[in-house]
Design goal:
mainly beta, 5-stranded antiparallel β-sheet, about 0% helix
Length: about 350
């Protein structure tokens, strides 16, 4: 355990290998629903592979030994049976009990990710709350394709072709509805799982930097960051907008109840902050200080993508990307505070529980 002296919180360091270690992206659960395992990615074997901490014993188990694994594509199933990932031009899953991997789908002669470190270059995937549907993005030449895979049969269908698709997320209250991020200047879109109903739900205003979207459970609201001014949200059925918080929340995500949000911060880094996403004020309180390097100098200025994508140096494993445990009692995050990216857990203060 590591004492964060500024907040008084105790941080549990999950990994300590002298290599990059990180949990999944902030809107992807790091645990199965029963919290039998905490899933993370480690480079300790020479490249990114999927590992699990057995939560009952603390034992670390390597689940994959697969070349070209897309480290930000990792998505644990909610029932704990599998971890889904992409590698080469295929969609795979590994069974957590046996470590046996199977390829569910071969997308053919395509690229799974674009070049770079952010957005579509990350190759994130989305799994529905019922574990039946897996959304994967690939590139067919210059066209971004959004595919939905039936995890029960392996059948798949491309439901959308357009210029850019990234950061897909199934609505936690509706496995028939997906958010996806479009171009950096026009990000906030939803589409039905069958490919119908593709529509923009928020139109960016001139000068706005809209980013880091995530669902608020129980509301059919999609939250998004208006960097660095705070968090807003839009109700996908009515289009009603509201303010969620007014501080420099960077990667905000709700717990399973939709009653509490956590966010890391940057420029300035004021630590991991907890706040209520429902009251329209979102007054933040401190959880802890990750002391991650949070690389990405472009975050310190105005919206840099007005004329299209630019090259940035923003290694994602240097960002905390906080995420709640299913029981809402702890938060997992990544920090390179020791010089190497490691995975940590921090318990919520008693005042925030119950």
């Amino acid at each position: 355990m590591v004492l964060d002296e500024r907040s008084g919180a105790w941080l549990r360091q999950v990994t300590n290998a002298s290599s990059v270690n990180h949990h999944p992206f902030f809107f992807v659960p790091a645990y199965d629903d029963d919290m039998r395992r905490l899933i993370f990615v480690s480079h300790r074997a020479g490249g990114p592979q999927i590992f699990a901490e057995e939560c009952g014993t603390g034992e670390l188990v390597q689940l994959t030994d697969h070349p070209n694994l897309g480290e930000w594509s990792v998505h644990p199933s909610h029932d704990g049976r599998y971890v889904y990932f992409t590698a080469d031009a295929g969609g795979w899953r590994v069974e957590t009990e046996t470590c046996v991997a199977e390829r569910l789908v071969d997308f053919g002669d395509v690229a799974m990710r674009e070049h770079g470190m952010v957005g579509a270059a990350m190759g994130t995937t989305a799994l529905s709350r019922c574990d039946r549907w897996w959304a994967v993005k690939f590139n067919d030449g210059d066209t971004a394709c959004l595919a939905v895979v039936d995890t029960a049969s392996g059948a798949w269908e491309t439901i959308l072709r357009r210029d850019t698709v990234t950061h897909m997320q199934f609505c936690p209250d509706d496995s028939g509805l997906l958010f996806y991020a479009g171009p950096l200047t026009d990000r906030v879109w939803v589409i039905n799982r069958d490919g119908t109903g593709n529509r923009r739900i928020y139109r960016r205003r001139p000068g706005e930097w809209i980013t880091h979207e995530s669902w608020i459970p129980g509301t059919r609201e999609l939250a998004f960051v208006e960097w660095p001014h705070g968090v807003r949200c839009v109700q996908v059925d009515t289009g009603e907008e509201r303010r969620v918080a007014a501080f420099n929340a960077w990667h905000p995500i709700c717990d399973r109840t939709g009653a509490l949000m956590v966010a890391d911060t940057n420029f300035p880094d004021i630590g991991l902050r907890l706040f209520d996403p429902r009251d329209g004020r979102g007054v933040p309180s401190i959880l802890c200080y990750p002391d991650a390097s949070s690389q990405g100098a472009h975050w310190a200025g105005a919206f840099p993508y007005e004329d299209g994508p630019i090259a940035v140096n923003a290694p994602q494993y240097t960002h905390p990307h906080p995420s709640f445990s299913p029981d809402g009692e702890r938060v997992v995050f990544t920090s390179d505070r020791t010089g190497t990216a490691q995975v940590y857990e921090v318990a919520l203060p008693p005042a925030r529980l119950g």
